[in-house]
Amino acid sequence: MDPVTHGVIGLAISAFSGDPVTLTNPVSLGCAIGAMSPDIDIVTRIWGDYVYLKHHRGTSHSIPALLGLAAVITAGLSPFFQGFNFFQVFIWTFIGCMSHTFFDILNSYGAKLFMPFTRKKHMVGILMLYDPMITLLCFLLIFANQKSSFFYGGIIISFGVYLGFRLYMKHYAKLIVTQYYQHGYKLVDVNVLPSLMAFHKWDYIVNSNSHHIVGQVNLVTKGLKERKKFKKPENEIVELFEETNIGRYFRDFTPLYYVMHFEEMGKIILKSIDLRYYLRNNFMHHATAIYDKERNIIESFFHPYSIKKNIPVTEAD
């Protein structure tokens, strides 16, 4: 989700405090700023996309960082309001911060909630990049004039029902894909992700004992559109790639990737593809590792957002 949507969510959450939802209210302001604050990691983009994508949705989205951000925001707001209740504003600001990580976990990107204790990225993968239903519920919370306990309860129930429905859609999409491929392939696992924008479509990545298959399923028509099919490489090829700095980076960057290999001008070239995001007839993120005939790494590159974008990666020990 973009920072503005996160801010709207934070502003809506502040309505549960019982205070008026207005930017002149420190609770509302703190909650809204808190909901946008974890994306402060965008400053790492100064050092390029390689550094930015390495840290994005990492430390700044973890519980310790969220507590720190909430404290800094609350302290920053305190001089501007009379009768400032530090503890109250801090709690609601922290809830706003938490909402950011929570919604990032609900989409297909995920977040590292428990860093630095673990580098595992948690991801539920049920919400689109922009979800109109979430926005609608937020606007109701922000702009409704009369707010009773029944109103708040209805919003919470509606939110829970919607998330449950999206979870059901995900399981249904996985069932359709599994039934389609299980007779022709020995399946290892099937991953289903929400389409970037289409409500009724889900992207899938099938991992069989012989192939990686990427496509999209339409829940209305139950039709499958197969985008790409890759024959799985030998394990030693994948291991060779994962031994490099770019390989370790890419493995941490995405849990779903494919490694292809070929030889060119006496060099061994391994190209890795992040299978999660397919846009404009191509995958979004790639990596390349180049070796000599003895399989010694010569150079490597990260290709964020476009295969034409080359960022050299240092491979020296």
From TrEMBL:
Q: Which residues cross the membrane?
A: 63-81, 87-106, 127-144, 150-169
Keyword list, A-Z: Membrane, Transmembrane, Transmembrane helix
For the keyword Manganese, the answer is no
Q: Which Pfam families match?
A: YdjM
- For whether the record's keyword set contains Transmembrane, the answer is yes
- Which InterPro entries is this protein grouped with? Transcription_regulator, YdjM-like
Its name, as the record gives it, is: Inner membrane protein
